[in-house]
Amino acid sequence: MKQFTWTKKYSVGVESIDEQHKHFFEIANKLIEMALNEAAEKDELVALLGSLGDYAFYHLNTEEKYFEEFHYPEAQMHVEEHNKYREKIKQLMDSLEKEDRDINTMAKDAAIYSGNWLFHHILFVDQKYTKFFQDNHVK
Ligand SMILES: [Fe+2]
User: Fold this and answer.
1) Domains of the chain (ranges, CATH numbers)
2) Closest by alpha carbon to 105, among 53, 47, 38, 59?
3) How far is ligand 1, taken at its centre, from the CA of residue 95, in Å?
4) How many CA atoms lie within 13 A of 124 on its CB side?
5) Mean pLDDT over residues 12-30, rounded?
6) What's the predicted TM-score (pTM) here?
7) How many Å lie between the centroid of ligand 1 and the Cα of residue 39?
8) Residues 97/3, Cβ–Cβ less than 8 Å
9) Other residues' Cβ atoms within 10 Å of the Cβ of residue 68
10) Which residues are found with C-beta within 5 Å of the ion, ligand 1?
11) Which end of the chain is more exposed for a tag (fewer CB within 10 A), N or C?
């Protein structure tokens, strides 16, 4: 499984948000490492998914705060996309608590879902706000 790499084509043209996206990928990459580590334990995965969840919520809220502040016209559809991801994180946390699935497989699922979601979301959803955010001087 390959690590996720942020490159310039994923830039949304706003430095602070690019930095957050990079950090998001770093957490997904830690999940990949965990997926490949046969000694990984459940507690570690719980902790890592917890930090992924916390960071995702923090990051998505950052964008949404700007949507509200500047009345971004495409906010509704964008927030719906965020909510799907929030839901997924909750599901992952729930199934981790309830099911007795293999830790490596669960880490791999979480990494792949998160990485793919983020790539797709940045390219097809986030990049739509580039001009709007720049016009409103978001840095
Ligand atoms: Fe977004």
Assistant:
1) 38-132 (1.20.120.50)
2) 38
3) 25
4) 9
5) 96
6) 0.92
7) 34
8) no
9) 11
10) 63, 126
11) C
Q: Tell me the CA–centroid distance for residue 113 and ligand 1, in Å.
A: 15
pLDDT in tens, 44-60: 999 999 999 999 999 99
pLDDT tens digits, 74-91: 999 999 999 999 999 999
The encoded tokens of residue 73 equal: 């016209």
Tokens of residue 57, six digits = 């919520």
Residue with tokens 């000694």, as numbered in its chain: 39
Q: How far is the CA of 110 from the centre of ligand 1 (A)?
A: 18
Tell me the one-letter amino acid at 59: H
Distance from the alpha carbon of residue 30 to the mean position of ligand 1, in angstroms: 21
Judged against a pLDDT cut of 90, whether residue 98 lies above it is answered with: no
